[in-house]
Amino acid sequence: MRAAPTMWRWPAAAAAAWLLLAVLLSAVAATGAEYVKYKDPTQPIGERVDDLLSRMTLAEKIGQMSQIERANASSSVIQKYFVGSVLSGGGSVPSEKATAAQWQQVVTKMQKAALKTRLGIPILYGIDAVHGNNNVYNATIFPHNVGLGATRDPKLVKRIGHATALESRATGIPYAFAPCVAVCRDPRWGRCYESYSEETKLVQLMASAIVPGLQGDPPANHPKGTPFVAGPMNVAGCAKHYVGDGGTRRGINENNTVLSFHDLMRIHMPPYDDAVIKGVASVMISYSSWNGVKMHENRFLVTDMLKNKMHFRGFVITDWQAVDRITTPPHQHYYHSIQETIHAGIDMVMIPYDYPEFVADLTSQVSKGTIRMDRINDAVSRILRVKFAMGLFENPFPDHRLTGELGHKEHREIAREAVRKSLVLLKNGKGGQKPVLPLSKKASKILVAGSHAHNLGFQCGGWTKSWQGQGGNNITAGTTILEAIKSAVGNTTVIDHAEHPDKSSIAKDASEYEYAVVVVGEPPYAETAGDNQNLTIPSPGPEVIKDVCGLVKCVVVLVSGRPLVVEPYIGSMDALVAAWLPGTEGHGVADVLFGDYGFTGKLPRTWFKAVDQLPMNYGDKRYDPLFPFGFGLTTKPTSQS
Ligand code: GLC
C-alpha cells in the first residue's frame, strides 16, 4: 500500500492540529463565545457524548436513530427530521457512471445541510461496500467472501479491507455495511457467497482481519467493545447479520435457525466476539429468527448478550425495513413492531422510506412512556460515540484528495492476488493420465467456451453495481477471463470463443484444439433471489461441458457463489477449478491456469455429492462429501516465458 499522503503523517500533522486548536480555543475564550464541550476534540469522548446528549431535544435524538435512503435525503428532509444517517441501498447511485468527485458532491451537500441544524451533528453515510465499493462504477471489485475464505490468508484480507476503505472514502463515504460474518451452514442459502466459510474458526480468522482492515488497528490496550476507527482513511464497519443468519432451515433466507443456545454460541457467535474485540463500530441485526423469535425483537441476544455480556459499545442497526418484517404480512401493527425492536436494543433504524411514520410513532411512544427515555439515550449515546470516535465532527466532509483511490491500480493488484489465491483445484488430469494444468501458453489452437468466459458481470456476482448484480461487460471497468486468457497466451495461439459452440463445429476442429477452457456457472443473485434447493449448474452449462469435454481435453472453471452439483459430469472433465465469484480482475484466473502462479486455494466449504445430503458440514458425524472442507490440489509455478 502506498505511504499515506504526507498530510497524514500523524506526528507533524497532529502537532500542528493541536496547536491550531489551542489557538482557536483561546480565541473563542477571548471573544466570550460560549465554550461548547462536545465540540472540543481534546475532551474525552464520553464527556462529549454526555454534553451533546444533554443538549438534544427528543426530535433530535430520534433523528439520530433514523437512517434514510439516499433518494429521499434532500437537504430539507435532513434538516426537518434531524436525520443522523443516510444509506445507499444496493444499486442506489447518483447516476450510472457517477465519478468519485460526483459522489463526494452528493455527500457534501447532505453534510452541509446536517451541519446547519441547531447542534450541527454530522450525518453518517453508509453503503454496502462488501467486496470493494461495489455500487460504484470503476471501483475495484474483489472476490466475494467465499473466495477469500479459500485463500486462508488473513493478511491479504486485511489489505483488501484497507483498500475497500480507501475506495469508499474516495466517494466520500465513511461507513460500510461490512463485513458479513455469517457462518453459512447450507449452500442452498442465497447469501452463502457472502460467508467466508461453513467453519466458525475460519470465519473468525477473516473477521479479525477485515475489521481492522476497514477501521484500522486499535491500540493494544483498547477497551473491548469500544468502537475504533483510526482516521479519515478508514471507515466504520458493520458486522452482520447478528446472529445465526447462515443457519436457517434448508438455507431459506430470513427464515428460522433452530439450534440449542450452546450450538448457537459455538457455531455462529464467535466471529462477533472477535469483531467486538477489534472495535467494530456497528452490528447489523439479521432478518432471521432463532428458535422462532425474530432477531430484531430478541432482547436477550441483542441487549443481554451483545451489549452487556460481550461489552459491545458501538451501535446496533436494523436491516433494511426490518421493522416492517417483524410481522407477516409486513408493516402490520407498525407501532408495536417499533416498540419491540427499540426495546430489544436496536439503536439505529434503517428506515429508507417510512421515516415520517417511524419518527411520529417513536415520538409518541416515548411521550407516552411505552418506550423509556433511558433506552433512547442509550441508543443515541452509542451512535454519537461512533461519530466522535471516527472523528466525524472534526472531519465531516469528503477529502477530495482521495478520489484517485477509486479503482486504483494497486488495489486491482491486490484483487488479482486474491483471485489467484482463491482458486481451488478439484481435479487435474483423468485417472492415471498426466496433469492437465498448468496449460501451455504456446498452444497452436484452443477453444474457450461457456457463458461465464466473457461476462464481467457474471464473474462479479451479486452486490455489483446493482443489488442483484447483472450480466454484461460494460457494467464497470475490469478484465474478463477470456480477455485474460488472450493476454496470457502467445500471439501465435489461435483462440476460438463461443459461449455455446455446437457439437458439429467442435467435432470439426476437435483434433486441432490442444485444449479447451469451459467457463460456466451461476448468474448473479442476492439474498432470497439466490435461495436454491437443487444447486444444479444452470443450463446450458452442463450441455456445454458435455459437448466440449466429450471431444476436447477440457478444463472446467466454475464461477459460482457456492458448491454446485458436478458429480454427474466430473468424469468427463480433465480438470475442474472452483473460481467462486472472482470480481473484476480476471487476470488472476489466467495467472494460475497458465502457471505463472501455482494453485494454493483450499475449499472453505464442503463440496457435496448430492443436495439431499444437505446440510452437511465439516465435523458432522455423517460426512460423505465429493470433496471435503479444506481440499485443494496444488501446482507449482512454471515459467513459460
Ligand atoms: C439488505 C441486506 C443487508 C444490507 C442492507 C442495506 O437487505 O440484508 O446485508 O446491508 O439491506 O443494503
Automatic annotation (TrEMBL):
Glycoside hydrolase family 3 C-terminal domain location: 423-634
Gene Ontology biological-process annotations: glucan catabolic process
Matches recorded under InterPro entries: Cellulose_Degrad_GH3, Glyco_hydro_3_C, Glyco_hydro_3_N
Cleavable signal peptide: 1-33
GO MF, one example: beta-glucosidase activity
Record flagged with keyword Signal: yes
Family annotation (Pfam families): Glyco_hydro_3, Glyco_hydro_3_C
Sorted UniProt keywords: Signal
Glycoside hydrolase family 3 N-terminal domain segment(s): 57-386
Keyword tRNA processing: no
Source superkingdom: Eukaryota
Name of the protein this chain belongs to: Uncharacterized protein
